[in-house]
Write a structure and sequence with these properties.
Helix content is 32%, strand content 23%. It is an alpha/beta fold. The protein has two domains: 4-81 and 196-268, HAD superfamily/HAD-like (Rossmann fold, 3-Layer(aba) Sandwich); 86-193, Hypothetical Protein, Haloacid Dehalogenase-like Hydrolase, Chain: A, domain 2. The strands form two sheets. The chain has an eight-stranded mixed beta sheet with strand order 5-4-3-2-1-12-13-14. It has a six-stranded mixed beta sheet with strand order 8-7-6-9-11-10. The longest helix is centred in the middle third of the chain and has 13 residues, at 86-98. The protein is globular.
């Protein structure tokens, strides 16, 4: 039997209402009771997990911030951190300001954005997260000043663009910065240090736990899950995943509104 299951959150273990269904939660708890390490593998940071502490209370580890941080939940401390350098962050901030994108900074413990953007998230196709950002996101008036005042803390920068055209324009310009770039949500671009992905995070966690990568399963739905699906011993695409993600997966399960994670667990870990 596989020894580790890595679960993406949005579009995977979370349904369209950003909840974990009782059936999916029961399947995860049962699998952990059978001795399988179940870990969350998400683009989210610690602050953005606050609503799911009860759901994930049995999980020991997480691959967070798109592989930028491996976290030990039991001891409440990072195992590995990969931060962006200040010069690169400033360039990304400049691009975001120039194209009127929402700039979102993921730090070791916090989620940071400008108040003017938080109050207008629907303009960036991110309205579904309005309530969460209102409650958990830290505010900054000047993103560069925040980065300067918190050296070494920023792990990932998201740019929430206003249109596909703006996203594609920024993507073309960011490519010259030698970063890991992925699409997420509507017109979102996620930037992490070069070669840092959910896939690299899985490698690091497996090395820490002394688990062979062939003994792992990963489930995801989006572009930022691509590397971990290619890395894991067995890969699963959600029924709501893009065709590109489905093509690289070993198995396609049901969608996230029909307990696709629970269905996959039942089929793979029987």
């Amino acid at each position: 039997m596989y020894k580790l299951l890595a679960l993406d959150m949005d579009g995977t273990v979370l349904n369209s209402q950003k909840k974990i269904s009782p059936k999916t939660r029961a399947a995860i708890d049962n699998l952990m009771n059978r001795g399988v390490q179940v870990v969350v593998c998400t683009g989210r940071n610690l602050a953005e997990l606050v609503d799911y502490r009860e759901d994930f209370k049995s999980m020991n580890y997480g691959i967070l911030i798109s592989g930028g941080m491996i976290y030990d939940f039991k001891n409440d401390k990072p195992i590995k951190i990969h931060g962006l350098d200040e010069e690169t962050i400033f360039k990304l901030i400049d691009l975001g300001l120039e194209t009127q994108a929402m700039i979102h900074l993921h730090t070791i413990k916090h989620s940071i954005a400008r108040e003017v953007d938080i109050q207008n998230m629907s303009a960036f196709g991110m309205g579904v997260y309005q309530n969460m950002f209102d409650r958990i996101c830290g505010r900054c008036d000047d993103c560069k000043q925040y980065v300067h005042d918190h050296p070494g803390e920023v792990i990932k920068v998201n740019l929430y663009n206003r249109s596909k055209e703006a996203r594609d324009k920024n993507f073309a310009r960011i490519q010259a910065l030698n970063l890991s770039i992925s699409y997420a949500e509507a017109f979102n671009l996620e930037m992490s240090p070069a070669n840092i992905t959910k896939g690299s995070g899985l490698h690091e966690l497996c090395e820490f736990l002394k688990i062979d990568i062939s003994d792992t399963v990963a489930i995801g739905d989006a572009d930022n899950d691509k590397e971990i699906l290619k890395t894991a011993g067995f890969s699963v695409a959600m029924g709501n995943a893009s065709d590109e993600i489905k093509k690289i997966a070993d198995f396609v399960t049901l969608d996230n509104d029909n307990d696709g994670v629970a269905f996959a667990i039942d089929k793979i870990f029987c």
